[in-house]
Please model this.
Amino acid sequence: MLVFTTAEELSSCLKSQSQTVGLVPTMGALHLGHLALVEKACKENKWVVVSIYINPTQFNNTEDLEKYPVTLEKDLQLLEPFHKQLLVYSPSNQEMYPSGFFKKSYDFGTLTKHMEGAFRPGHYDGVATVVELLFKKTTPTKAYFGEKDFQQLQVIRALVKQKKLSLSIVECPTVREKDGLAMSSRNQLLTTIQRQAAPLIYQTLESLKKNAFTSDVSQMELYFKKELEQSDELKVEYFCVAETENLVPVTTLEKGKKYRFFTAVFAGKTRLIDTVELGRI
Ligand code: AMP
Model:
């Protein structure tokens, strides 16, 4: 497996190839959700760069950053089956931010006003800053992002549009455990009891979607909270229904519009997010 720590080495390798390049940005602690992105990228490009970098500027909570799992050796083993097409880029903080950490200030309008944008101030400025840096360093033809972080996906699409970048963004569906829990690097931090409780997040979103008993979002929120808080392990930070395109939360559902559920739930100190498409109602 080719592992690069500097963009200079990486780009000299890529330049000699002059073929399509797919980028899969990750923070490591890889799981099958990440591998689905890598697999898709390998099918659609000659070369694939998987970046593994925990970006401090997108964390608004130091404890979350300190606890974030680091499993580089295991990550490289998981990527091994793709080694013929893969270049791993695993930069240091010095390589990414040679003049010290910074984040740019962006205007993504309504896309960053709610949900993660509201509960994690500055998060998307950090995300957009590092993704812009990664795009510059790896010059991909396509970049792959997960539906699991749907708000992030919409922000990256807006970034590409605003900066008139010549690459396409590919959305990849959320990969779940058998019991429905969205795969996440943070799932490793759950205790056995928290892990047993966590699938209730997705199960409740799905049952709300299937039953669609009301178009009143406050009733849905009440139902969601009541179901989840039957478990002592789970605490809902937010639940909302937002329009898919502009990510503005709504109070009632209107015919003909496309919506998604969004939620963040604490299992102990571990914060889990999930989203489910409601589709056009
Ligand atoms: P992360 O390492 O958590 O920053 O995630 C890197 C990329 O993988 C992001 O585009 C995520 O949306 C995506 N991703 C993470 N978990 C999943 C999952 N369960 N299913 C699909 N994509 C995912």
User: Anything to note?
Assistant: The longest strand covers residues 270-280.
